[in-house]
Structure formats: C-alpha cells, structure tokens
Type I-U CRISPR-associated protein Cas7 (Prauserella halophila), 404 residues
Amino acid sequence: MESLQLDDLLSAVAAGGANCLRSVTELEPAAGPHASVAPAKFASGRSDMGTYAYETRYDEDGNPSDVVIIDSKQSQLNRVEHGLAEAIRDGHAVLSRLPRLVVEYSRNGETIELSDLELPHRAFDGHVRAGSLDGNPAPTLEQYRGVRDASHADARALFDASPASLVFGSWDATRAARQGRWRSLLTGEIIGYCRKPAEPERKGGARSDPMGMRIELSGPELKALADRQRAELSGKTYETLTKAAAGAKGDKRAKTSNAGLGGIPPSLEALAGVACRRIVRSHVLSFAALRQIRFGAGSEGDAACRALLVALALSGLARSDAELVLRANCDLVEASPTRVEVLGRAGATTEFAAPGIEAADALLASALEHAERVAGVSWNGVVLRVTGDPAIAAGAADDEPEGN
C-alpha cells in the first residue's frame, strides 16, 4: 500500500481537491473481549459519582445502537497536542522549530511555561491576553494584534505565530469585535458499541489499613494533623478535616478517612465499567475546511501553507495513536491495522498506509521545506513569550472538579 507523499497533500488542499482524510482503527480491551472499560466520566448535577455519555449511532450493519463515549473529541485533540508538546520538549529537530505562543509564570520559586499547545483557547487564551511583555499588556502589542486580526481571507499572521490554533481550532470569544473563529481542522473520538443500562451500574470498592479499619483522633489531634500537611492538601480536603476536628469536642472522636487513614468497607459507590462489543477510534482531517483559509502567498504558496498544516496534524496524530493511554481501567489495543483513506469527490476513495511517527515526521519535514521555498515560511520556535499575571498564579488552585 502506498504511503502519503507531499504531492498527495498538495493535490488535496488545492481547489477542487479531496474532501477529507479519514483514519479509523478497531480497538479492543487489552484483557480481552470479556473485559469492561472505563469510559470518559463527566460531571453530573444528579450524582456525585459523575456520569457516562451515551449516544445513538449506527453500527456496521446500518442498525441504530447505543454507544458510550470512551474518549471525547476535545480529549482526542488534547492528546494530539500533548504528543507534539512532548516532542518539542525532547528537542525534535523539526517540531522544536514550530512557532508558538508561550505564557511564563513564576510560582513557589518555579517557572511554569504554558504554550498554545496546552492552553485551552490556544493563541486567544485568557492567560495570553492577561499577560504582558516589558510591562506592556499583551493585547496592546502590535505582533499580537496582528494575530487577533487574522481572517480567513488572510490568516498569515496567525499561521506564522500559532499554527496549532489553526489545526486544533480557537475562538477569540471575549473580544468585542473581529472575533477570530477557527474551527478545528482535525476531529476524532473513541466510542464503544454497548447496551445502555436503565440505571447506572456500580462497582464495588474498599480500602484496608494494616493499622486498623477504624482510626479516630481527638479534635485537636486531627486539627494538628491537617495543619502539618496543609501545604500539600487540597483546599477541599483541608476544609473537610478542620470541620471534622471542630465537631469533635470533649470525648467525641473524629474519623480520619478523609486523611487517607483507616479502612473503608466494601461498597457499591463508583460507576462500573462498560462492556463493549465493538470499540472504534476515528479521526477526520478536513481539506474542505482548510481550503477556505488563505495566507496571502498566492495559489501555490497558500497550498504549501495548507499542506504544512496537514503534515503537522498527521505528525501529532501519529504520536497520539501510538500511545493508547486513556485512563485507569481503560487499557486498549489495536485489533487491526489503522485504515487511512482520502475521500475525494463524487465518492472516489484512495487508501494509504497509516503513517507512523517516522513517516509522518518525514512528511512534515518535506512540507516545511516546500513551504519555506514557495511561501517564505520560517519556523524558528517561540515567536511571542509573555509574562503571566502574578495574581493569576497566586489565585490558581489545584483542586480538580469531578468529571472527565
């Protein structure tokens, strides 16, 4: 089977080119078909356990079926971005040159860097807009104003500063006018065909403590224990412990389970896994959406810029697909090779070999060299580094909400 080449990308992104690229992989539980998996869990106002997301889809025979979302579209994009960010940290020869925006914070003596591959709104994230450079607010910087003013008619400023914002989507939602709205060119998900239960099914859980199933302290003792660990405890845990300590007056003793002490008897208090008869991972990369964007480089130059964005997406996707790491109790393996197809016009379909990391990186290097030559593209790493607002760093809490 043929591998994707630069000419294939250039043909796809040119006027009248293919509609999209589709990548589909059949997966299965690593433990075997008898095993359940833990889907993505979402916050729910009805239950403090959270909930799974079920939908109705059609199966391979065209019949409607219940499915559960094992990994959502946004989560899949985040995993692709993570793969690119890790390659940059490893000093990858090409990806370390990727233009990006970085916000730098200082907290507790440590420097924290957040790039547009990690910030949820990419180039238009609140962390960037709240930052400054040499004492000047980021929104006043001419370079950043150019990024925010980019349009589909000429997206070159955004392309040169933050290609990730074009590939993975971004929205300048808080801006009063000229909001940049860029849909994600790449989408993906993992779903499992299953039977939706009438009521949430639960699984058992327990905890044993070699010192004893029940460990109780006096109010002052529990308060002292919480205070000693205060710097390491979440705000919610510390508050729970201090309230329990305050309620233990006189001879009354306080339970220490919230401090991780003592045992917990077996109980059905967590969402059970879901058994799936079929698990599918799919991604779509839209050439049609990409052709709506111009870069002020003429027909050939614009095509080169588009092909470079496609190659960047494929490089990240190859990394994400290579690491089937979702969450605890959700270990998956490929049941068959990934099927990659370019969907052309009038139902034409061309199948290609799924690019691994090495092949995808070679395609990216080729696309970059071509874009440098015909569109004047220059990748030199970070193009804008802003200093994060210290008040934001001071006000940040590490408590994690319930959900995915």
